[in-house]
Amino acid sequence: xxxxxxxxxxxxxxxxxxxxxxxxxxxxxxxxxxxxxxxxxxxxxxxxxxxxxxxxxxxxxxxxxxxxxxxxxxxxxxxxxxxxxxxxxxxxxxxxxxxxxxxxxxxxxxxxxxxxxxxxxxxxxxxxxxxxxxxxxxxxxxxxxxxxxxxxxxx
Amino acid sequence: xxxxxxxxxxxxxxxxxxxxxxxxxxxxxxxxxxxxxxxxxxxxxxxxxxxxxxxxxxxxxxxxxxxxxxxxxxxxxxxxxxxxxxxxxxxxxxxxxxxxxxxxxxxxxxxxxxxxxxxxxxxxxxxxxxxxxxxxxxxxxxxxxxxxxxxxxxxxxxxxxxxxxxxxxxxxxxxxxxxxxxxxxxxxxxxxxxxxxxxxxxxxxxxxxxxxxxxxxxxxxxxxxxxxxxxxxxxxxxxxxxxxxxxxxxxxxxxxxxxxxxxxxxxxxxxxxxxxxxxxxxxxxxxxxxxxxxxxxxxxxxxxxx
Lengths: 155, 306
Fold this sequence. Notes:
The structure holds two protein chains of two kinds.
Chain A: E1 2-9, E2 12-19, H1 24-31, E3 50-53, E4 56-59, E5 72-74, H2 87-94, H3 104-117, H4 123-130, H5 140-148
Parallel strand pairs in A: 1-5
Antiparallel strand pairs in A: 1-2, 3-4, 3-5
Helix pairs in contact in A: 2-5
Chain B: E1 5-7, H1 12-22, E2 26-29, H2 35-40, E3 48-51, E4 61-64, E5 67-71, H3 76-81, H4 83-88, H5 90-97, H6 102-105, H7 110-116, H8 123-129, E6 133-138, E7 141-146, E8 151-153, E9 156-157, E10 164-170, E11 177-184, E12 195-203, E13 210-218, E14 225-226, H9 228-234, H10 241-254, H11 265-285
Parallel strand pairs in B: 1-3, 2-3
Antiparallel strand pairs in B: 4-5, 5-10, 6-7, 6-10, 8-9, 11-12, 12-13, 13-14
């Protein structure tokens, strides 16, 4: 059973026919080739698959692709503009906000959503917001620092 | 996940038409944060998935009869951040804020959470203590069900297959009342509770006697549990520490927890007493105006000999 869906992914209109049981993460990775989004726990706990749907973070491993029909999706590939990295990406690089890297796309996307709402978040706000993005290397201090200092790179 | 038909009705009428066509093989889905996992695990294998996401008119939060009416499709995050809820019923906002993570709360709906009927969830104890009612609709009209009578077993409710939760009605908290919800989380902040307890206390005009009390617990049985005998201990009684302790003891008799990685059954029963006591104390502290809770006489801590 297939269904044609139309969505906007990272600003581009996309039309794709998917089986109804296709998960959004699989649609992004295998149908659209956007492999930046990672699959970790597959049950919505770890945050590796975080993407934005209409600007709000969701677990793409718990969303059916058909749910995205008519919506706007932002993945880690959509953060850079005209070849220039998003401030939060620059900050993660400058302040070492990652170790092995598997959780990084989810961390960066979640952090972007936070910064859209609160440009200069406090440590408490960061901890509450990022609570659902796990880092298996436990490199949380650097992640928090990177988010806290991201505003330095904003224009 | 096995393949399925997918429908996106725009109104309750269209939902009923789809339900009629597919019968009990169909499954309704709203946020899907719970159901998609169950489908992945093949615990649920619907032949048709009927998405409620596009059904109109079920996503408002409004004042109703002095209380609040929360549409079935309102997300957890919307309850948490709604200025109306925060102003009129801060306990509800606080309770929904305890659920999982923001990512889940952005998607999970109020109606969907209740229909899912996992006894470990946070909102049901608070909603039951507040005396909430769910409004459900079907092709035959609508009916109101007190939330306390809604849950029957693990993931089981009194909902009929063709019924949809359209609204949750939370009555106004009476004057001279205090409310509290406590979630015992020994593991991680996004976990289900080991034990959760909600309490609503209403004092008489002197603020020295319990006029009414309601206590509900989560994660300690196959459904959320109302601790009626514990309430009865307090109703009509003066506000005294001993009475609160006795009520907490009674609450331990009302629960029936299982041993799992969040604690043994015996430990959870013990914690049920502790958290009911603390919830009652916190609720008393939040009664506006006067400090209602009796001062606790605790023995001075013994100095440890060096």
